[in-house]
Design brief:
The complex is a heterodimer of chains A (about 90) and B (about 400). Chain A is an all-alpha fold and about 90 residues long. Chain A has helices at about 15-25, 50-65, 70-75, 80-94. Classes of the chains: A mainly alpha (about 90), B alpha/beta (about 400).
Amino acid sequence: MRASRHAPAMSTPDPDRLLVEISALVARFAPAGAQLTRATELVSDLSIDSVAAMDLVMEIEERYGIDIPVNEIADLVTLGDLVDLVARRLAARS
Amino acid sequence: MDIFDKYELLAQRRSQLLGAGADPFDLEIEDLHGPCEATIRGRRTILVGTNNYLGLTFDPECIEAGCAALRRLGTGTTGSRIANGTYASHRALEAEIAAFMGRAHAIVFTTGYQANLATISGLAGPKDVIFVDSDWHASIFDGCRLSGATVVRFRHNDPDDLDRRLERNPNPGGCRLIIVEGLYSMLGDVARLREIVAVKKRHGAFLLVDEAHAMGVFGAKGRGVAEAQGVEAEVDVIVGTFSKSLGAIGGFAVSDHPRFELLRVAARPYMFTASPGPATIATVRTALAKIAAHPELRARIWENAQRLHAGLSALGFTLCAPPGPILSIRLPDERTTVFAWNRLLELGVYVNLALPPGTPGGVCLLRGSVSAAHTPEQIEEVLARFARLAEELRQLTARVAAE
């Protein structure tokens, strides 16, 4: 496979580290100072609408060098769902 | 729980907008005075936001053709294409579009929205992966969803990002379809089709280009951006619309694929809706012949685009793309944009108000579109009114800064 600018070879981060990293990306789309836990709801707690969610996902895809199909974004409710989805895609890649 | 509870966020956004003094979704055109002027809120208004690129909506020959078809064939077909809705004129229009676009096959759809819905959902299935530009039009999004395919977005107009994603998703069990637009409807920027075609060839994917906003405007023959960039042979399917340069309603898809006609029995948005009415078909046929015979219409829209772009830039407005049929002005925030949109209406200029989440990257836009039918006087008048707006925006900014 060709080397890719945005997909550095990396081992899959552990779930806690993944939560911290993804929370940092989510924070850029959320109201300032919003509490971010696994139970935080993306729409009702953070007002991240469907369009913002897709832009957020694109940031995450670039960070980890993965593709998250749009089909899977609609099912996301909580930040925990998002972290689990990223973990699944990372596992599928490796 | 109420059935509308799911729209709480949407309702909040809407009342926020109404509170700011704008309801862009409920604007009424009270009367029309040709392709470029209307009465809005009781005021004579120059239209600079109608996508009426070649100004053919009031062309006397198109109108006569429509009236004659109404008298001869009636007001509607009352049937779908696969039942009683295929008239000789539908077939004739399909042959004429195929000839205009230089393709073996053309299929006509009832609306432009349905053209994407039907073509995409007909081409792609659950085993396929669609790679779609992230600035996608709603009709592309909905077509992708209806197809059941896996949908991967790539960075807007970024062939390298597309390349990486194709690399990561070989999809040996199905096909891969890339979808881009020739001219993007919000910012008015043009697809990097040459590079996208190179990526497509390297990966053996299919490519669909939506030329809705480009047909009639780009290319020596007016076929769109693929023609202008000399890559038509590598584009598998082109989708287009009748509701912009052709001044009517409806859409089409063209292709050289030998099995393309299968879409007529596979694409549900083609099969299960009434076909376009005879008057629509007749006006589109006349308009198509017109844009083939009158390349000066294209020359005129480009002249108007250059003049309006230069004038707006000179007034200090930030335009999102080089001169073209779509001239989008970027403003700093929603409050300023809503103020400017309303103020322009008061000054007698209509443009589109485009706000997040309907815009790429969350930008706030006054989206203008120019027409070949705009007279030099109308363009000058529009610029004079924009000059007043620019002055008022400067005063507003100064006031806000002083507060």
